[in-house]
Write a structure and sequence with these properties.
alpha/beta, eight-stranded mixed sheet, 8 strands, 11 helices, 255 residues, 42% helix
């Protein structure tokens, strides 16, 4: 495991790293998750293996530190991630990011363009979300931070089920709540449309095309439907995910 300090208070981001050839690939997890448990199996398949690969746990999640004085906005997450990537000597990376991680990765590409050469978003949030009592960021955002820390944490873990709870229970409570609240307010769609780099968006085939698909395609975003999967595409259909991501990244390099 690697790590580096990303905040003045000493807080550190940690990541698992696999050696390999350039360009480097950076895998970014979603809300309440961790990078290696969600991505390592797919990234180890022959279609994706062989590149230097970083499985980064965002500040507040997984093995990284959980400072309570951090704001956990998408911009702050992106800046902390940028600090970690620079410490890891990463430039012009192929970034593959799931759910909230995709929102953060889009901010990263906009705010620190030298770090991101290609971007693959995996069923990421495109539009602001109305808080509603259900699993995910919308449900967490129905609580005040005080109520979430006191009892919403336990209620949320019960609501999301054992798989998601396995990594969510590692998150800082303030980190989880603040990240969720900020995520529900962000418009990733417009940021994704205006980025000047190769970018793609994977979504479950059963969900149908995302709203505004034609506008995304017209702006240069490649939309890829993956069959036999739910939100966690890289876990639900490992082979399909690896095949599609490999094709996207190889295709952009060839172009």
């Amino acid at each position: 495991m690697r790590d580096t300090q990303v905040l003045p208070d000493g807080s550190r981001i940690r990541w698992a790293e696999v050696a390999g050839r350039e360009p480097v690939r950076v895998y970014v997890h979603g809300l309440g998750a961790a990078a290696a448990p969600y991505f390592l199996e797919a990234a180890s398949r022959p279609e994706l293996a062989g590149h230097r690969s970083l499985f980064v746990d965002l500040l507040g999640f997984g093995t990284s530190d959980r400072p309570t004085g951090f704001g956990y906005t998408m911009e702050e997450h992106a800046d902390a991630l940028a600090t970690a990537l620079r410490a890891a000597d990463v430039r012009a990376a192929q970034v593959v990011a799931h759910s909230m991680g995709g929102t953060i990765a889009a901010h990263l590409a906009e705010r620190h363009p030298e770090l991101v050469a290609e971007l693959v978003l995996v069923d990421s949030n495109l539009d602001p979300i109305e808080p509603a009592l259900r699993p995910g960021s919308s449900g967490i955002a129905t609580y005040t931070e005080e109520d979430f820390v006191r009892h919403g944490w336990d209620e949320t873990l019960a609501r999301v089920g054992p798989h998601w709870a396995a990594t969510m229970r590692l998150a800082g409570r303030e980190a989880l709540h603040r990240s969720a609240v900020h995520l529900t307010r962000v418009n990733t769609r417009e940021r994704l449309r205006r980025l000047p780099i190769p970018r793609a968006y994977l979504y479950p085939e059963a969900d149908g095309e995302p709203i505004g698909a034609a506008e995304l395609v017209a702006s240069g975003v490649r939309l890829i439907a993956v069959p036999d999967t739910g939100h966690n595409i890289m876990i639900d259909n490992v082979e399909g995910f690896a095949r599609e991501v490999s094709g996207l990244l190889m295709g952009s390099q060839a172009g």
